[in-house]
Amino acid sequence: MGRIERPERVPPGTRYRRPERVTSGTLYIILYYTILYLRSGTRSGRGWAMELIDVLNNALDALKEAYRNKRRDVSISLLAKCLRATWFRMQSGRDIVTNAVLYGSERHHWAERHFPAELERHGFNCMHEVRVEHAGVAGYVDLLCEKDGTRYVIELKFTSTPYVWNPFIEWYRKQLKYYAAVADAVGVLILMDFNLEQSYKELAVLSQHEREQLLKELKERYEIIKSGIKPRPERGPWCRFCAFRAQCMNRKLI
Question: Which end of the chain, C or N, has fewer beta carbons within 10 A?
C-alpha cells in the first residue's frame, strides 16, 4: 500500500505567488505532451495508463447497463406517486432533473451522513438507505432506526415548501405509509427547506388492519404498472408541476 506523507509545515509569513493564467495555448501544450506521454509505451506511460482507461471504460459500461435496468424497475416510491406519471416516466425512459432536484439530492446525502449520529445521542440505532421489499416490489428507506424495541422509518424530503400545504404532501404520506407497512415500523416524515432552517413533521402509526390494507394496495398498484396498460390519471395539486402534463391532459390520450 502506498505511503501517505504529511506535507511540510509552511513557515509563518510565507508569501505565495499567484499561479500564471492558464491560456488556451497553455492547455494545448499540456494536451500535446500528455498525448506524447501516453504514446511513449513505457511503464510510466501508455502501459499502465491505457490499462487504467480500459478498466474505467469497462466499469462505466457496466454502470450504464445497471442504470438502464434500474430505469425499468418499479420502486415503492414510484408507486406512491400518480401512476399515470410513473407510466409516462417509464415509457419515456428519462429523468426530469431540475435545480430543486439537485439541491435536494445534495442536502439529502449530507443529512444521511449527519442525522443518524445526532439521533444516536438520544438512544436510537440507525442505518441509512435500507432496502425493504414486499410482493416483488422494493424500495430504500432513508433511515431505519430502532429504540427500546420499536422500529422507525424516517423519510427526509427537502423542498422550498416545508409545510402541510406542500403540493406533494399526499405522495410523501403514501410513500411513508408504504414503507412503514413493509418494515412494520412507525413512520416519520420530515420536510425541510434547503437551508435546513424550517421543518414540518408527521408521524404514521399503523394498526394491523391499516398495514394489511396498505400492503394490498401496494401490490395492486404494482400490478397495474407491470401490466403495461396506461393507468387513469390521479389528479391533484401535483399536476401543475408534472413534466408529462401536456400528454396527460390531451383528451385524445385519455
Answer: N
For 123, the grid coordinates are 438512544
Among 100, 153, 102, residue whose Cα is nearest residue 124: 153
Sheet holding 137-147, edge to edge: 125-134, 137-147, 150-158, 186-192, 199-204
Report which of 168, 169, 171, 207 is spatially closest to residue 186, judged by C-alpha positions.
207
- Contacts of residue 115, defined as CB under 8 A and 6 or more positions apart, other chains included, come to 126, 143, 156
The domain ranges of the chain are 24-71, 81-249
Report if pTM > 0.70.
yes
Query: Hey, what's the cell of 222?
Result: 404494482
DSSP 8-state secondary structure symbol assigned to residue 241: G
Grid coordinates in use for 161? Answer: 415548501
> What does the block give as the cell for 241?
408541476
What phi and psi values does residue 196 have, to the nearest 5 degrees? 60, 35
What CATH number was assigned to the domain covering residues 81-249? 3.90.320.10
Measured from the Cβ of residue 54, the count of other Cβ atoms closer than 10 Å reads 10
Q: Per-residue pLDDT tens for 161-215? A: 999 999 999 999 999 999 999 999 999 999 999 888 999 999 999 999 999 999 9
